[in-house]
Amino acid sequence: MNAFVQKGISAHLIPMNPDFISKEGLDTFFDVDTLLISLPPRLTKNEPGFYVKQIEAVIQEINQSRIRDIIFISSTGIYPELNRIVVENDVKTPEESESPEMVAAENLLTALRPDRNVTILRLGGLLGYNRIPGKYVQGKKDMTTGSIPVNYIHRDDAVGIITTILESGIVNETFNIVSPIHTTRREVYETSCAQFDWEAPTFIEPIEKPDFKVISGEKLNQHYKYDFKFPDPLQFYYSLEDVGA
């Protein structure tokens, strides 16, 4: 929180478990026209239903506020591996999803329409600065997923797209947010390992071709004009220190 304060941002630390532990500061926090919700689900660490209850608690406060525009940060991890190009309408219900709780949370928020404008942003794998793909696989042997296309987004572009939406106007739509180029994991891993002189992983051809998905970001282009700073994951900007914070 100190990092926000140092940048002149009014910051609030409001714990949830899963409801708000205290009402202190909530009136001030929700006294805004626009709310951006970026709440990591941590689905493997919490009991089932925990994330949905958190979103329900947020919605309860929204309903008592003057908020009219909402952006919810979701994830392309909700899509199953369909072995094809995937678009927003491929997952609309929890039953269709690889992450039912996240889609349930999306649907709770979109139910606020039309009284409020709600945009859902399904972000691809968030990389850039100290989030370096090669860091997580350096030295690994005989990986079988090298041919899978990636669905990444650089942090600067994620921020840029959100800023563009805020400036242009929030619409009642769901958008995939991914870089337009989908190179292979092998190329991404080897390139980022070489950048930092790490031992690159090795790859073998699996007996069966691994399942994949290619996330389409075309719908965003139909509503907003945005030029990617890093359209190609092979050219993402990285740093061992989080200098972009």
Strand order of the largest sheet: 1-2-4-7
Look at the helices and sheets and give the structural class.
Answer: alpha/beta
Q: What helical percentage do the residues reach? A: 25-40%
Low-confidence stretches: none
Computed Rg = 19 Å
The CATH superfamily is NAD(P)-binding Rossmann-like Domain
Tell me the overall shape. Answer: globular
Give the class-level CATH name: Alpha Beta
| Number of continuous helical runs | 7
CATH topology: Rossmann fold
- The proportion of residues in beta strands is 5-15%
Total strands? 8
SSE ordering: HHEHEEHEEEHEHEH
- When the domains are counted, the total is 1
The major sheet is characterized as:
4 strands, parallel
Head-to-tail CA distance between termini: 12 Å
User: How confident overall, as mean pLDDT?
Assistant: 95
Describe the structure.
The chain is 27% helix and 13% strand. By secondary structure, the protein is of the alpha/beta class. The chain has a single domain (2-130, 151-181, 214-235), classed as NAD(P)-binding Rossmann-like Domain (Rossmann fold, 3-Layer(aba) Sandwich). The strands form three sheets. The protein has a four-stranded parallel sheet. The longest helix is centred in the first third of the chain and has 14 residues, at 50-63. The two termini are 12 Å apart. The model has no long low-confidence stretch (mean pLDDT 95).
